[in-house]
Amino acid sequence: MDDLKNFFCWNKKCGKYGVRGAENIFVRAWYGKNKDIRLLCCRGCGKKFSERRGTIFSDSRLTKEKTFSVLEHIAEGVGVRKTGRLTTLYHEISKIVLSLFGLIVYSST
Fold first, then answer.
1. Do 15 and 45 lie in a common domain?
2. 53-81: per-residue pLDDT in tens?
3. What pLDDT score was predicted for residue 2?
4. How many domains does the chain contain in total?
5. In this structure, are 12 and 45 located in the same domain?
6. Which residues contact 73 (CB under 8 A, 6 or more apart)?
7. Helix, strand or coil for residue 37?
8. Using CA atoms, how far apart are residues 57 and 50, in angstroms rounded to an integer?
9. What DSSP designation does 66 have?
10. How confident is the model over 20-60, as pLDDT tens digits?
11. Contact yes or no for 69/88 (Cβ under 8 A)
12. 1 in helix, strand or coil?
């Protein structure tokens, strides 16, 4: 799998930490509702991590399509509440997606 060259070990104690294309990453398993997310593993240290780690999809229950739909609506100037209605998501989830992209700042008040 050529696309694994873009991944690296996240374990700071590993000798291959942060090194892309070192051929130390392999697919350990598939998981998720549709078994479409790869669980990757480092040959050097044996630590496992999701292919989604370090992305906006990390720990997300939303599909990529739903996430992109929220972003497309916002890019078109649609408000957060209306985006929530159009994407059949609660508007607070739209805010969470936007905060992951750094497009919304929550005030502390």
1. yes
2. 887 777 777 778 888 888 888 888 888 78
3. 54
4. 2
5. yes
6. 82, 83, 86, 87
7. strand
8. 10
9. H
10. 888 899 999 998 888 888 999 999 999 999 888 887 777 77
11. no
12. coil
Is the sign of the CA dihedral 30, 33, 36, 42 positive or negative? negative
Q: pTM of this prediction? A: 0.65
Please check whether residues 36 and 74 belong to one and the same domain: no
DSSP secondary structure code for residue 11 in this structure: -
Please name the residue that has the structure tokens 């399509």.
65
For 20, which DSSP code? T
Question: Do 107 and 88 fall into the same domain?
Answer: yes
- Residue pair 19/9 in contact (Cβ under 8 Å)? The answer is yes
Is the CA virtual torsion 42, 62, 69, 101 positive or negative?
Answer: negative
d(C-alpha 38, C-alpha 68), whole Å: 20
Give the range of the structural domain holding residue 26, as residue numbers without chain letter: 2-50
SS3 call for 45: coil
Q: Are residues 38 and 62 in the same domain?
A: no
Tally the residues of the chain: 109
